[in-house]
Give the backbone structure.
Amino acid sequence: MPHQIEAPILANRKVGPQHYRLTLRAPIIAEEGGPGQFVQLLYGWRDRPAMRRPFSIFKTDRAPGTFDIIYLVRGPFTKGLAELPAGGTVSVVGPLGNSFAPDPGAEGLHVLAAGGVGAPPLRFLAERLMLSLPSERLVVINGARTREMLVAADDFASLGLEPLICTDDGSAGFKGTVLDALRAVSATRRVACVYACGPEPMLRAVGDHCASAGIPCRLSVETVMLCGVGVCMGCVVKLRSGDGAPGYTYARACADGPVFDAEDIVWE
């Protein structure tokens, strides 16, 4: 059940060329939030933005009652967000959406495939998976266009996981895409499931590969979410009809997702 609270800002620090990490005190979200879920934020610093914006939960810490997000500064909302000082507050609605639901008992590797700012919810998932799986059964693929656009690589490493780094231009890791890395992993090891978050072209490519290889795959879609609670219908995702019936239906990414089975998604 989502909650609306005024969350104190404990820290808001730069962690990359354009990336910031925001730490908020919100015990109910720290307690209830799961990997894949998100929050809607709004603040009143300078010119108040008109609409909330969605951000994936990166980390929760139940003891102090905090949660973190990582965001990329690329528009008026996030530019204003980056200026918010510790000691201020942010209006938070959450946790929203569904979570990744891994099956630790499935044989094989659990592969987490992150593209750009799709990394935060997968780092959260990796932390949860490590409660029930040995690290050797987890593989993290962390990709971006360039070194400067990589997100949370050090945070995966802090869990004892060394991500497979790939960049389109070869400025970090090997030159190639998340799909290239996934193909290499799945060609040599049995994969139990793939969990992916990132830009739509990457998700589609990962989903198609998993379908052809018979690998279960769960995707966290990135789409515009205006209300975040399933009212405005602005974030619908086309899904295949159930039980093999012809045709398709629509689901709300914010309320029915954002995590879907890759085989259910009908890409436009």
Q: What stands out?
A: DSSP finds six helices and 16 strands in the chain. The longest strand covers residues 3-14. The CA atoms of residues 47 and 68 lie 24 Å apart.
